[in-house]
Amino acid sequence: MRVLGVDPGLTRCGLGVVDGMPGRPLSLVAVDVVRTSAQDELGGRLLAIEAAIEQWLDRFAPDTVAVERVFSQHNVRTVMGTAQASGVATLVAARRGIPVVTHTPSEVKAAVSGSGRADKAQVAAMVTRLLRLDVRPSPADASDALALAICQVWRGSAQRRLQAAAAAAGRERR
């Protein structure tokens, strides 16, 4: 399974692609951060993020896109930018028929570190370890995008198996 993880943000939007299956070693395919300037017009910034995600979908052909679920913060401007970038990622994938899932930050932290309260350094350390990398992905947006992809590889596979079992049970009752 190949997953594109998107850590949405207007100034820095993390993108990370991971190949893997539960119970098997994970592989890093690619990681980067799309940067836009706060001085640029909003529409142009969103178009830059859209273009980058479109290129990644063309280049890496993920099976699923995992996007961080927007959560409330004290800074409304940050939440708005995050939500807008998240919407762009969701739209671009949906336009191509690629399933999009969202995970909360605490779900992602728990999946990769075992604790939903892990800090960014702990998440980055575990991403580095799980992907057997020589150096930590930087900045944090990059490791967060990879953590989202890892979370989906592990949790998404379990969710699919549960859905398949429920569907099979429903067919047996008929």
TrEMBL record:
Its EC number(s): 3.1.21.10
Gene3D superfamilies membership: Ribonuclease H-like superfamily/Ribonuclease H
Biological source species: Jiangella asiatica
HAMAP family per record: RuvC
Chain sites annotated for binding Mg(2+) 1: 7, 141
Cited InterPro entries: RNaseH-like_sf (IPR012337), RNaseH_sf (IPR036397), X-over_junc_endoDNase_Mg_BS (IPR020563), X-over_junc_endoDNase_RuvC (IPR002176)
GO MF term (any one): crossover junction DNA endonuclease activity
Cofactor note: Binds 2 Mg(2+) ion per subunit.
Entry keyword annotation includes Metal-binding: yes
Cofactor(s) essential for the protein: Mg(2+)
Coiled-coil regions listed: none
Catalytic reaction(s) noted: Endonucleolytic cleavage at a junction such as a reciprocal single-stranded crossover between two homologous DNA duplexes (Holliday junction)
Protein name: Crossover junction endodeoxyribonuclease RuvC
GO biological process: DNA recombination; DNA repair
Chain's gene name: ruvC
Cellular compartments annotated: Cytoplasm
Subunit structure: Homodimer which binds Holliday junction (HJ) DNA. The HJ becomes 2-fold symmetrical on binding to RuvC with unstacked arms; it has a different conformation from HJ DNA in complex with RuvA. In the full resolvosome a probable DNA-RuvA(4)-RuvB(12)-RuvC(2) complex forms which resolves the HJ.
Homology family: Belongs to the RuvC family.
Entry annotated with the keyword Hydrolase: yes
Keywords on record: Cytoplasm, DNA damage, DNA recombination, DNA repair, DNA-binding, Endonuclease, Hydrolase, Magnesium, Metal-binding, Nuclease
GO cellular component, one term: cytoplasm
Pfam families: RuvC
Role summary: The RuvA-RuvB-RuvC complex processes Holliday junction (HJ) DNA during genetic recombination and DNA repair. Endonuclease that resolves HJ intermediates. Cleaves cruciform DNA by making single-stranded nicks across the HJ at symmetrical positions within the homologous arms, yielding a 5'-phosphate and a 3'-hydroxyl group; requires a central core of homology in the junction. The consensus cleavage sequence is 5'-(A/T)TT(C/G)-3'. Cleavage occurs on the 3'-side of the TT dinucleotide at the point of strand exchange.
Positions annotated as active site in the UniProt record: 7, 68, 141
Binding residue positions for Mg(2+) 2: 68
SUPFAM superfamilies noted in UniProt: Ribonuclease H-like
